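dumping this here before i forget
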Amino acid sequence: MRTNFLFVSILIFLLTACTPTASTYTPVENHQATTTQSQPGTTATTSQQPKEKPIIDEYPDELNTAKGATYMSEREQQMIAEVNLVRSNPQAYVKYLEPYRRRQQSRIKHPPTRAKEMAAIDELIEYLKESEPQGILQPHADLQKTATKHVRYLKVTGEISHEGEGNSQPWDRIMSDNPKFTDGNENLVGGPLSVRDAVIILLVDRDVPSRGHRHVLMQSDWEYLGCASVKRVGEMTNFWVQNYAKTSF
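structure:
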């Protein structure tokens, strides 16, 4: 059964432009913007950030399922390990949210936005405390190819969208590249250089009332994850495509 919701999630540290349309932008200071398919088009600019030191070896071996995958960069391997970190032990992941919350409280200067962000983080903390562990995700060369093709397509178009070449949707691309996959979905996220911060943005999912990004990331029956990144899509830096898939019905 196909999952019938799609999400785009964006964080910016210093300046974000968020919009109900793809061509009209209203700057909001220190604002994390999340959009759904009914609110397409989000872009942003960031200040220069320090180069992140890879930390792939700091993950336990059982979570580091993509380590050594020659078709993935070390950052892409780290993204899979980070997703596995929260899926395998949601309660333990709470410790990473507390420093993130402090940084966001200091960084966001717009009071209503700050209050909304703090409430979403607090809600996530309670959600994780009550969540059961989910299965560890494995890398897959075909799924990695799907994510890589889409992120390269978006880099060329400069648009942030789940719609791909030939008007394809995520599940079209995922199951076309491997017909054994029975379902798939996609998260898009950009802004922070830190892989961990990108995952936390998807989990907090502040501006999506259904918390759809979070549910995609934590969905219990996923088996595989492909993730590809580029330095920029349009005005959005550190941009990621995550593709999830399963072979069961």
